[in-house]
Design goal:
rod-shaped, 12 strands, Elongation Factor Tu (Ef-tu), domain 3, alpha+beta, 32% helix
Amino acid sequence: MFQKHMVSESDFDDAKSNVRLNEAQLEACFAQIKIAEIKQKSTELERESVLAELDGAIARINQMEALFKVAQINLKNTRICSPIEGIVISRKVSVGQTVAASLQAPTLFTIANDLRRMQIEALIDESDICKIKTGQIATFSVDAFPNRKFQGSVSQVRLAPTTQNVVMYTVIINVNNEDLALKPGITAKIEILVEERQDVLRIPTQVLFFIPPPEILARFPTSIQENEETETSLVWVQSSASGIYPLEIHTGVSNAIYTEVMNEPFASGACLVARVKEWWTDWFGL
């Protein structure tokens, strides 16, 4: 167009300058884009660096928290606290004594939980253990209070035997000790009510073991033989007419003092022989 004289030379130069200017501006835009990309990459690197520093700070915080908890535990372990409220019965350590941790924890103190609620560990012979049940009433006495009877109830019948020449079983008896009269470790004499009878005829248990002299036994050979065959109990009754004579009875529940008579062969108040001296003195004047 310039050669054909359609535009002037100045217009052509202006257009050419505009093209070069636009090319320069375009290159500047590309350069700005590259700068922005570089800044973006730099920002991402900075962000990753900041995130890494943040993770490191969080890790240090967690580490310090763990160390703080360990320090708290160590501080707590410097104080030995009782697991229960109660009364110190005995002390096995002194002030300033070193206590070392081991697989078997040492006994530092013996503590009673509540002396108003105590337990008795009673040893029961194997011949009687089958009669003992939980809930049965137990009465006992101690040497410190010979004229006082205490009461408790059976709470446990332990199955592990204790062998010391004879086989024994441990029975736990719960006892109320509101007045704190009973002390730990005290010895008690215990009676457990295993069976009870009301309004029955009873005799002293001692009369069941009475054996008269041979000359008296010879007077009642038939009664003695029948008693041995039937395995019933035999007592000797005092009579003003014939001295003493044997009488078969069927016994029920018994303890060391009294025995129940089930068939009631004699009336209440009958005189039974318990010792040789009594009937011998009465009947022969010795």
